[in-house]
Amino acid sequence: MTYYICYDKEGKTIARCQTIQDIENLKKMGRPITDIRQMKEEESVVCSLTGSPSDYNMDY
């Protein structure tokens, strides 16, 4: 499973998303996403173990 980390212009993590559609939804909601990076496999394992990516996105 692929996960993405979204960053603001200051380089702070503002969301972790599972799909590009999730990222597009956040952009439509006005989140200041300036950089998107695919998570490494070992990082994404933590997401799948701790719950849904939406658990990290308070706006969903």
Major sheet details = 3 strands, antiparallel
Helix content range of the residues, please?
A: 25-40%
Number of strands: 3
Strand content: 15-25%
Low-confidence blocks of residues: none
Q: Largest beta sheet: what is the strand line-up? A: 2-1-3
Helical segment count: 2
Instruction: State the separation between the terminal residues, measured CA to CA.
Output: 20 Å
Structural class comes to: alpha+beta
Reading the helices and strands in chain order gives: EEHEH
Approximate shape: flat
Mean pLDDT: 78
Question: Using only CA atoms, what is the Rg?
Answer: 11 Å
Tags for this model:
3 strands, 22% strand, alpha+beta
Question: TL;DR?
Answer:
32% of the residues lie in helices and 22% in strands. It has 60 residues and is an alpha+beta fold.
What do you see in this structure?
- The protein has helices at 20-28, 41-50; strands at residues 4-7, 13-17, 35-38.
- By secondary structure, it is an alpha+beta fold.
- Strands 2-1-3 form a three-stranded antiparallel sheet, covered by helices on one side.
Q: How is the secondary structure organized here?
A:
Layout: E1 4-7, E2 13-17, H1 20-28, E3 35-38, H2 41-50
Antiparallel strand pairs: 1-2, 1-3
